[in-house]
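**Folding the chain**
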Amino acid sequence: MINQRSELTKAKRVVVKIGTRVVADPEGGLNHHFLDQFARQIAQLEQQIVVVTSGAVHLGRRALPLRRVDSVSRRQAAAAVGQPELMRHYIEALAEYELVGAQILLTTEDMSDRSRYLRIRNTVETLLEEGVVPVINENDSVSVEGVTFGENDRLAAVVAAGANADLLIFLSDQPGLFTADPRVDPEARFVPIVQPGEDVSAYAAEEGGGESRGGMIKKVEAAQMAVDCGIPVVIADGREDEVVVRILAGEEIGTLFLARGPMTSRKSWIATAMAPAGEVVVDTGARRALVDKDGSSLLAVGIVAVRGEFQAGDLVTVVTADGQEVARGLVNYSAQEVEQIKGAHSHRIPEILGHVGDEEVIHRDNMVLTGD
């Protein structure tokens, strides 16, 4: 497990997420200087690089042109126009250094379905083995509002987990994480390292806007997802010269989020790729059992309430009465059934439901602890 800067040099596979404000030219097009420098860095690195990029909506909005992208259809139209242009620029920049790029467009449905998730992972694996640079973006032109990744920061965390990456780098227009927005607070302090489990969400101001839907708060949330899967994260200024090369050389640049212990592929998928369909609320005893006895399953006796509508096999979050998330996992019963058996001992489940079912509401093999 990487626990200091010097160990970043050991990373073999790296996911680099590039924000709109880094790849975009303020005057309307793409930042060709950045793309050239970025492609040159990939060419000189020995690591396998996976790119997650924003910028399609930015390009499409100006090509149409659209005054705003404040509706689903407008955003989809802009993405449909901008994505081919965005990919063309990446392909050309990589080709200058004799590199081949490959486009992969993803939706949440692709990643939440286990079989599709595995096929995508195998495709990325094959591309990397062949020396190709995968360039990934959300398929905004067909994604449905409410079931999108929301922004590419979360998508990058999902991709990093699925690709078994050793490091995730966010290239932003900021040097890293500060205790407040340094553009408005002169006393804001830079945060060089974030320890596992450290809550720094209060530091991150919501600064997305226009075509950029992320902002530092979304990067912090995505970083926490990645580190929970055992993947360290660096947030750095993408406009810095040779920034990726310098990070992978162990230079103290950007904010480093240290990772927890490694996680199995299946649990990484549960932790990152699926959107929860509902919640089960647990009592203090159940929370203690899950947290203090890592590896325990969730039993019906510890459940006090059910929220949302879900079916057996759906992902749900496990929360306390005050809303603190403890875990998430694949539930063995529907919301209606959990409502019926909550608070009951496992041996009473067949009597209550009228059929034999699992002893566990969520089995430990299908659950990931997400609380501190």
